[in-house]
Design a protein that fits this description.
The complex is a heterodimer of chains A (248) and B (240). Chain A is mainly alpha-helical and 248 residues long. Chain A contains 10 helices and no strands. The relative contact order of chain A is 0.12. The chains are: A mainly alpha (248), B alpha/beta (240). At the A-B interface, helix 7 and helix 8 of A face loops of B.
Chain lengths: 248, 240
């Protein structure tokens, strides 16, 4: 009963928000710019039945995850190396601190210059933006590893490979997941941004194209779709985190 | 006196400018239960790190011809939280064959945790976690066991039970033990030799032989006149 109550509580504010939107939109003088939610939801449902919209969604998800996946593949091992070796970390420190705060959107013109406007460029921008949170969190994880874990392994003469696989990696997984959760959100934001700027396809392009052709309900439906996608990705990662870091 | 298992010759160690140990000499013989006591900051744990091979001394030599194993002070961080009891104990072994698994199960049983073997450390009490650490050390089948304040953060009753169990295991496995502790009662009850490490002189300034026969019973031993006599002697050293 308590669980049901708790689940219900989560939806109180969104339901109130939707109701308020619906009432204001229906009583407003400009329903074209500010359509009722019922109309937007209806539109989204009908769009989800079209192959065009599904392709736009799939392309955005594909870019988002490929960029994010490559960033993870680079950032986790690099973070472990940098976190475990102070000298190498000092060598790379300036480069990391220079690129990390750089707004990823600012590299889009440079990326277009060198990579053109196709998927490689879009994935590169997503990769660039989502790399840093994973890298920084992995480095922090390694630096902050419980010294007793390493001491125990050393006293029991466990070799470096097994220490890395069975001690260091599981110990830094919570930190890696913190980085992954931040990065996956950044990946989605950048996928949409780059699609809006460069065009071609994807939900970002669909939203901007709908706005430019005065199909505002479609535009809102696209935004709603991004919100739903973001929420689902977050839920997926929370579940994944709970499953992977089962000892927490 | 049994066969010599370990000898420290003129051990010196410092951290930066701060001298921690100066000219430590120690001989450990088979069957010994040696307690190293001293005030906080006297270098007991540093000495234990050197003895267990975690730390290399700045100067001096350690001769050790036997197999050693360790139990650390902080049970909550000495076990790996992502491994269950069985995995924590088997982890130090390269091979995980049936023989090794049976051996690990034997020691899990010895510390009374067989029905908890699939549990994660977070699902166990402090005393149970320390038992896992003890079983892990015992599974290495050491000749010499180092205990670094293993009862430090355990409640009174669990601590008493664990101490009694340690004595029983020692008897059963013919173990030689070196214990670091700041607790005088614990040191007298458990050991046959106590070494007092001075925080000012950075070396052992007193060796006390405890002539109380094994097996020992906690209530009988700790209420005996001999026990109180040793306690007074050590308290005098602490108060100096």
């Amino acid at each position: 009963m308590n669980k049901i109550k708790h689940k219900f509580k989560i939806f109180i504010i969104p339901i109130l928000f939707i109701l308020l939107w619906e009432i204001i939109a229906r009583s407003s003088n400009s329903p074209v710019y500010f359509p009722p939610v019922s109309l937007i939801i209806g539109k989204l449902i009908s769009l989800l039945g079209t192959s065009d919209f599904i392709i736009h969604c799939s392309i955005t998800i594909y870019r988002c995850f490929i960029g994010f996946f490559i960033a993870t593949l680079i950032a986790v091992p690099l973070g472990i190396i940098l976190g475990a070796n102070k000298k190498i970390y000092q060598f790379f420190h300036f480069i990391i601190e220079f690129f990390r705060p750089l707004p990823s959107a600012s590299v889009i013109p440079i990326a277009i210059l060198f990579l053109g406007i196709d998927d490689t460029m879009k994935i590169f921008v997503i990769l660039f933006g989502s790399l840093w949170p994973i890298l920084i969190n992995t480095i922090d994880g390694v630096i902050g590893i419980e010294p007793q874990f390493l001491k125990t392994a050393k006293v029991f003469n466990i070799n470096q490979g097994r220490i890395l696989k069975n001690v260091i990696f599981p110990s830094i997984l919570p930190q890696i997941f913190t980085g992954l959760k931040i990065s996956v959100a950044i990946s989605l934001i950048l996928a949409i941004t780059v699609e809006m700027i460069v065009g071609g396809n994807g939900i970002g392009f669909f939203i901007l194209d709908s706005e430019r052709s005065f199909q505002f309900v479609d535009m809102y439906a696209g935004v709603l779709m991004i919100g739903i996608l973001g929420y689902l990705i977050n839920v997926l990662f929370l579940k994944l985190e709970k499953w992977v870091i089962f000892w927490r | 006196m049994g066969e010599r298992l370990l000898e420290c010759i003129d051990i010196h160690h410092s951290f930066g400018d701060q001298l921690i140990l100066k000219g430590i000499n120690l001989k450990v013989y088979n069957g010994d239960f040696i307690s190293i006591i001293g005030k906080s900051g006297s270098g007991k744990s540093t000495l234990m790190d050197i003895l267990s091979g975690f730390l290399k001394p700045e100067k001096g030599k350690i001769d050790c011809d036997c197999k050693c194993s360790s139990v650390f002070q902080n049970y909550s961080t000495s076990l790996y939280p992502h491994m269950n009891v069985q995995q924590n104990i088997i982890f130090p072994f390269e091979s995980k064959n049936k023989e090794i698994q049976d051996k690990c199960d034997y020691y899990i049983q010895m510390v009374g945790l067989y029905e908890h073997r699939k549990k994660l450390p977070k699902e166990l009490s402090g005393g149970m976690q320390q038992r896992v650490a003890i079983a892990r050390a015992l599974a290495q089948e050491p000749d010499l066991l180092f205990l670094d304040e293993p009862f430090g953060s355990i409640d009174f009753f669990t601590k008493n039970n664990l101490q009694q169990e340690i004595l029983e295991i020692r008897e059963k496995l013919n173990l030689t033990i070196v214990l670091v502790t700041h607790n005088i009662d614990e040191a007298i009850f458990l050991s046959n030799k106590i070494l007092y490490l001075s925080e000012t002189k950075k070396t052992f300034i007193k060796q006390l032989n405890i002539d109380i026969l094994y097996p020992r019973n906690l209530v009988k031993t700790t209420t005996s006149n001999l026990f109180n006599q040793y306690k007074r002697e050590l308290l005098n050293l602490y108060s100096k």
